[in-house]
Queue: 4 jobs
Job 1
Amino acid sequence: MSQMYTCAQIAERYGVKLFTVWTWIRKKKLNAIKIGKEYRIRQIDVEAFEQARMTTKCDEGQLL
């Protein structure tokens, strides 16, 4: 099973408020899995979120 993060962990990672993470999920900018009343975000979804927001696209393994 891949690494799973809470919304609070994602908020801390990006330096944003928890409400912002919930907004990203609600607007489908960040994929999440709802477990009970809480969301969990997979590592692969975090990577996709970051990749979609890169200002300069590069091939995998290529450094800028």
Note: The chain is about 40% helix and 15% strand.
Job 2
Amino acid sequence: MLLDTAFIIDLHREALRRTPAGAHRFLTDNPDLLLRISVITFGELAEGFAPGSRVAFQELVQPYE
């Protein structure tokens, strides 16, 4: 399944707040899906991170092909 930028942002915010909601619930309900992001989503997410936040960015995108 190809995940878009908004979904990844929602999932990230849910994790930061420690309040699982829709994005987390979707992943929990569909544990067997192969999750991917496009190069466009990769770029959009990278744009949202400060230059010194490379490790945090890599941790965010690491689970996805």
Note: The longest helix spans residues 5-17.
Job 3
Amino acid sequence: MSAMIDTPVDTPARSNEIVTLQAHILQQQSRYPEASGQFSWILSALAISAKMIASHVRRARLDDVLGTVGNQNVQGEQQQKLDVIANDILLRTLGGREGVAIVASEENEEPVILRTDDSAERKYCVLFDPLDGSSNLDVCGAVGTIFSILRKDRRSPDPQASLLQCGAEQVAAGYVLYGSSTVFVLTIGLGVDMFVLDPAYGAFIRVARGMQIPKTNKCYSVNEGNRLSFPEGYQKYLSWAQERGYSSRYAGAMVADVHRILLQGGVFMYPPTRKAPKGKLRLMYEANPMAMIVEQAGGKALSAPGERILDVRPTDIHQRVPVIIGSSEEVDQVAAHL
């Protein structure tokens, strides 16, 4: 599917219909008569991966796949057993899709180049964080998968260079939240839609279209345990917010925190710290896809005052950035203190 390039052919909307994620993907594809279907197959692979990972998450304690494997990933973080399982599922599922040229994971040092042919068919690069917040698993907390899809640049002699695109060039982005229910949130640049997995039928059912973040909500999400090592402006903002009765909500998984803000409003922050002076969250695997979703829902996403996350020019696939993301007015309040 050639999303975000050509003018779609509008089709009449039907009310009170039950729409699965698969049907939604096909509906979107039908709006582009020239679509080859490769893009749709990639989204289908992500949906299948989400179902498989959700099953492993539900059975993690029973199958004894909690805890670490004793290795560190490229980020210097302890790998959880389910990190490895989720990563393997996504690599194998996406690897079978002809439209995927390159896959890159937060867990792997180098991207996996699957296809280098220069055919006329569009090829895509898929980047993902296989299991965001995986340390929550041991306490039955929410975790998630985040993904970003880019077009492969056929003009580039280096296949890996196709990955180093600004977030504004993303074709699609989304996340899956594995919590009390399994939620799949997706944007292809035409708004944000939400689906919930019905375990009785094994299908994601569309439950919301054209989602919009409330412009304001007196709620912030940040790891306040690091407060004393935040830059002064962030500390001033927190004092300002607390004086005005703001609530603090922090789940320890970006997917869970941003999902709540998408529904209820507020602001999520991951500032620079003395330990991580460039920020902790990865631009390509976390910040860019979440920024695309939030902006498509009417919110804002900054890495610094006046600097959109989606405009940051990446220099490395594991690059880190500070993150301020959420309701437009709440993001502006943080930026004003910086």
Note: The chain has a mean pLDDT of 89.
Job 4
Amino acid sequence: EWSDGLTSEALEKAIAALPDGYRTSFLLIEVEGYSHKEVAQMMNKSEGTSKSQLFHAKKALQKILKDYRFR
């Protein structure tokens, strides 16, 4: 649930804290709506790398945001 005092500013900071590849994959797929195939082509990577980076981005965001909630 996002109503635990999480602000859009905190979410933006969490996304900004991601490593470049994770952040790029997350933004292109989850925000912009591109497919893994499209992102792989844009980043000159494999689809597997795109999927892996998105998975790790989501895990990292969960950890960052979980830590944020307990501040």
Note: The two ends are 16 Å apart (CA to CA).
